[in-house]
Design a protein that fits this description.
By secondary structure, the protein is an alpha+beta fold. It folds into 3 domains: about 5-110, Rossmann fold; about 120-190, no CATH class; about 205-298. It has helices at about 15-30, 85-115, 145-155, 180-190, 220-230, 240-245, 250-260, 280-290, and strands spanning about 5-10, 35-40, 50, 60-65, 70-80, 120-125, 130-135, 140, 165, 175-180, 205-210, 265-270. The strands form 3 sheets. It has a 5-stranded mixed beta sheet, with helices on one face. Helix 4 (about 180-190) packs antiparallel against helix 7, helix 5 packs across helix 6 and helix 6 (about 240-245) packs across helix 7 (about 250-260).
Length: about 300
Amino acid sequence: MTPITELRVAVHGFSAEERHLLGQQLRTLQRRTRVNWAFAAPGEAAALTIEHPQRQADGRALARIRDAAGDELRAQLLDWPLRLSSLLTLLDEAEALLLSAHAARLRAQGPVLRLRRLAVPTLIAHDDVSVLVLPDDQELLANVLNFDGLVQAFLDLPPALPWRRVDAPQALSRTMHAYALPRLIWALSLQAPADPARGWRKAGVEYHLESWPHFGEWRTTPELMRLAAFYTRQHATLQQGAEFAHVEPEAVAIFLQACDACGLGLSQRAPAPVPVDAPRWRDRLLQRLRAANPDPQH
């Protein structure tokens, strides 16, 4: 996942003059913010959306901050007209939230990759947390009382922490709570970034799922259920899934990546070639007649 260097702003209900003024303010603040802010192109995801005061009952503008997957991090009201100092404060707060969310996704990426590669019983110990992973049983045992605490414990693991192979796991498992390994991989995968090396943005590539996620046990949302229904019944592109589930393409890529990490049978195929209409039989007949009887004047 590449560092954040640019972020996009979208405005709703602004006149051309108001949009132009905001653009001037953004350019004025370029050297005072950590990243470059610019208007989002049509169809491009925006990290910051500002709705005009005319859409609000109290005469103030509404700002929404969303991460790359489209998850809302904060919504807040703004005094209007928007002063330069207020805009700078808004951008600073948005950057802090977005960079923090970006870092959290990076922290989730490492544990997912390491958990998927485990082939033998392994002990993970950090501070007062101990986790015993049993790959053959698709299970892990931990001295953590609830699943949310377990997910957070993995997010807090130092990247360089050694994971130790265990030859006699039975001796360590007496007082631990059991959790399903795929459930943890699913939860962490949904918080990890979409890997750009997998070419999720490649135009026209279609994806399909063989199996539904185990939503009875795994984390679910209405959007995840819509995506599961969509991709298990057909091949479809990332953009088609985003439009169907009303989410950002990044969120679709994260969902499909999580499905792949949990062995749900993700497949992909190249874009189908555009069919070329075959000449009609009359056209073919005329071509043959012209070939057999060339025009004597030529």
